[in-house]
């Protein structure tokens, strides 16, 4: 009886196919037993052993790893090709400068300079500001103050809620301290967000620490803030920021900070604006020989770039 040996598969069966190819396909069953190696006969009549399948498994694993590596490289190239709109685009900057003085019976001189930058998107608003103020009266220094603050607002999509983080560094020659560092974070809620009007409240916690004074301990504080920005016309806007910092250590102690102003674009071609405003600071515990209230008003020319 003639038997056709159909040799297919992997592992040892593939080896048997090679051997059968050298001998011939249509052979007598007795001749097959005489010419085939024992391993081939066993492979034709029983399942391939794990050892026989190992080379095939290794080859499949290598092929799979090569495909995964190629896909990974493709994904890296896709990410690298995306536009870097992210954090370094869309910034608006402005530099501001103001001077005033008098001579005669009284000699006064006041100087204020600053720089502002902001980036506004649908889901994040970032603002930073640095300013320096110096003043003299009859040759005696009356003001020497520097201030830097930065705030980031993360706005949740399709929600009035958000989250903010605020940091501030202050220097003042006429306080009980020389430097004060503070930081706060917490939730925010936007009451109004229109094209020409934004009203947002903030509630957070953090603290401050002074350096160069009598009390240089860290003070845990809360923060309650309110921000209003009103775009009156294309060339005019009004802004108010007010914050209260109650002490967690003593409820009778608190600080306040309010900044308000009006800005009008006077030269659209140069991006030159006139900025009028005032800044008020209050500290219920200012230290010896220091007033609780501190009011500073200003008139500045601001150049956007």
List keywords for this structure.
305 residues, alpha+beta, Porin, 2 domains, 12-stranded antiparallel β-barrel, 4 helices, 14 strands, disordered N terminus
SSE inventory with pairings:
Elements: E1 2-4, H1 12-23, E2 26-28, H2 29-35, H3 38-45, H4 50-81, E3 91-102, E4 108-120, E5 124-137, E6 140-155, E7 161-172, E8 179-193, E9 197-211, E10 218-233, E11 236-246, E12 254-267, E13 272-283, E14 293-304
Antiparallel strand pairs: 1-2, 3-4, 3-14, 4-5, 5-6, 6-7, 7-8, 8-9, 9-10, 10-11, 11-12, 12-13, 13-14
Helix pairs in contact: 1-3
Question: How would you sum up this structure, described in words?
Answer:
This protein is an alpha+beta fold. The protein folds into 2 domains: 2-81, no CATH class; 92-304, Beta Barrel (Porin). The protein has 4 helices and 14 strands. It has helices at 12-23, 29-35, 38-45, 50-81, and strands at residues 2-4, 26-28, 91-102, 108-120, 124-137, 140-155, 161-172, 179-193, 197-211, 218-233, 236-246, 254-267, 272-283, 293-304. A 12-stranded antiparallel β-barrel has the order 3-4-5-6-7-8-9-10-11-12-13-14. Strands 1-2 form a two-stranded antiparallel sheet. β4 and β5 (124-137) form a beta hairpin. α1 crosses α3. The longest helix has 32 residues, at 50-81. It is globular and about 95 Å long. The N and C termini lie far apart (97 Å). The model is unreliable at 1-46 (pLDDT under 50).
